[in-house]
Every structure is written in structure tokens, then in C-alpha cells.
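Page 42, continued from yesterday. The earlier attempt failed because a stray header line got pasted into the input along with the sequence. Redoing it now with the clean sequence only.
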Amino acid sequence: MTVKQAGYSKEAFSLIEIMVAVGIMVIGLTAILASYANMFILGDLARDLSRATNAARARMEEVKQVEFDSLDALNATTFDLEGFNVADARGRVEVRNITGNSNLKEIRIVGCFRSRNRVVGEDANLNGALDTEISEDKNNNGRLDSPVELITLLAD
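This time it went through. C-alpha cells are written below.
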């Protein structure tokens, strides 16, 4: 049984209660939509990262086919990452002789790329070189770094 007082039911919601409930619902929906939008961004980044890694792996396979004595000629060479626009990605091959062992070389392949107008990796201008005048070496280790990095050792 509802008790009425001055024409109003005590079981009804007040305008303030409804506004608070709607406000909480709006905040919750905003958070859900923001998460949904971030999933698209992360999905694009994962796709581009996978594409760049596959291109670097393909380049590594090409390097493995080169004669051991000719590997030094590949040091500091750059290449386009397949699957990207030429201006949006660049890879670099580095060949290093292992100290104390002339029959062993370290091959390092790094790929930097642009995903959603953000450069992934230290090569800010995507030219395949470490440019000190524009401070590309963020961690001061003297080389380009990126999430797309493959390293292998090749023996003669």
C-alpha cells in the first residue's frame, strides 16, 4: 500500500535521483567507448608490428644466403619493410665481427615504422640511420633500437 502525501507517492524517484543515475550511466558508457576505441588503436599497432617483423625475418633469410666473406658489405645497409609505404618504414642491417673469432659474425636487423602517425622505434625520420643531431638515440647505446629487432650469429 502506497502512502500518498500532498499528491506524491513515496515510491517514486526524485529528479535528483534520476539525474545521478543517468550521470553514472554516462560515465560508464564513456569508459566503455574509450576502451573500445583503444582496442582499434592497439589492433592497428599489432598488425603493423607483425607486418614489420615478418619483413625483417624475410630480410634475415636473404642475408643468410649471402656468402660469409661478403657479409661485411651489408653492414649499415638499409631496406624497405615490405607491406609499408616507402616513407612509412625503414629497416637496417648491421654486421659485427665477434671479437676473438674471425669465423663468427653477428647479424642484427632492426625495423622502424609509422603506425597511426606515431613512429615505432628510435629512427624518428625513418631513414635507416642513427642521427645524433636530432637525438634519435633515446637510451644512449649508440645504435637504433626498435621492438622489431632480430639478431643471429652466422659462422663460416
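Notes: Strands lie at 4-5, 8-9, 77-79, 89-97, 104-115, 118-120, 148-155.
Reminder to self: strip header lines before submitting.
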